[in-house]
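User: Here's a chain of 296 residues. Predict its fold as tokens.
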Amino acid sequence: MQTLRDSAIGARVASIVAACALIAPLAGCSAPHLEARNMDAARLGTCESAYLAAADGTPGLSGAYAARPALMRYLLSRAAGEAWLTVAASCTGRFAEGALRSAQVSAVTQRLGGALGIASTTPPTVDYGDVVALDAAPAALDAISLAEDRAGFSIEVLAARGARNATLAASDNHKTAAQRLFSLSGSTDDPRRKVYAVDELLAHPDTIEDPATGVTANTVAVIEMNCARAYLDAIGGADDEDTGDTTDTGDATRDTTGTSDTASEKTLHLMARMAASRAWHAMELGYPTGDAALFR
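Assistant: Prediction complete.
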């Protein structure tokens, strides 16, 4: 028997579906007021138009965001999560910013959806099985493979001791990613160590201080965030947000590993999505979502 609450939720979902049908999508849905802006954005490059859309749906970057109705904020943030990935892939010097902002705004979208009675979205599972090739520098892929393997081992150790949020499924996901990345790198020397120091993990199985930021959070969340940072360091190592470099990067290469000189936008977009997925999962587990905790 349908309850009043079921009817209310159904009405919300119906209104969202109707809105999506009427507006041009950026990530499934966009927002009506963006139509005029999109006409101007069409005359801009991919980077500029993506950045405009991303900033418009990100709290703190859009002055009008907080004043909009909840449904509008949901639609804008949902679109912004995808737009930030395009920023990461197409804007020189903004790989790290784009990936982290995507995770950050996706976490906001998740909370807004819950408040509206919309089924929560979750971080996509990272699956390298369908990836045939990545045209990134082998050294970058090796560094990420090492980080994924370390994360898998760390979570396995915690799962064996019944630590909160640690599962063997998550451990296997990281290890599988590490194996696939090593295969895709074409390297002859396997960077994975398979076994890593566990003293800090055993001493702090539930909460631990993130050495990168000084933030104390759930231990698995810190592991996930540091795995995400390995992508940012390897692919976008020269981004201003990560290195503190104040040099204008408008015409510079994106990183110090040579990845940006050779990687296609497709590869950069995929790697940004993978980094965002790890970071978003960390936020799901309680890692702070504020800029001070995310941007070093």
